[in-house]
Amino acid sequence: MRALYTITNVGPVSGGEAFLLTTEGGAALVDTGFAFSAGEMTERAARLLGDRPLNAVLLTHSHYDHASGVPACRERWPGVTVYGAAYAQKVFQNEGARQTIAEMNANAARVHGAAWDRGFDEALFVDAPLAEGDTVEIGPLSFTVLETPGHTRDCLSFWCEEEGLLLASETLGYPLMPEIDMVVPNYLVGYGCTLDSIRRQAALKPKAVLVSHRGVMEGSFLDEYFPKALLWAERVKDLVLEAAARGLDEAGIIASLKKQVYVGDIRRLQPEKAFALNAHYMVNMLLRECGNT
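-> structure tokens emitted (293 positions)
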């Protein structure tokens, strides 16, 4: 049977992907990319939509590279509804988080040779907070909300059982292609909850998964993806703990981690400043949660 949807990456720059989900009766953006590229992102989406409106934005979490295009979406489609975790709404109201979002957007613009230093946009907020078990309708497709913490506390995935389609959060980790020889962990707030989130999504046995920053993956890819996500989550945890056992300080541990995982596509997708910030949270989380095991 023909799938009832199409998914197209309308993000114009690597690392700021935004995926347009279109159905026979509705359309949604899954994440919205950077602030500096949001104008071009909405133009690409509008060309595909034609006269049709954008009904929804589904935020998988509140990080700047996923959420910062929301204000441009509101400007282009005033009736759009922005969905995200209730915790994400709190993040967007937090002054420290707002400053970080502004700084990371400015840094991403510099990395891509663009001009952008406009601070935090007040139009970045969630209209409809979501929790576990809620549903979102996009045309004929019904998506059940799954809380999938690990990358952030506010990570959400969206599961359409009818189509076997999983719109996954970044908690699953990023697969290096084409051999999937590594799935780089993206856990920043929890190790155990990350493993639980991966196993839970694998148990759904999806036919297709929208992988964060990568696109829709199907078939034999998924047979390898979930097991290797678990494998590399454990390997990177062990790397961090072993480096700490050798007496390395945080900077030394991060240097060891960088040598292992800041490779291939990751260097293209993630500015070095963003990697360093994430590594800081990752290392401290692993030492705190797993250091005495």
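Residues 5 and 134 are 21 Å apart (CA to CA).
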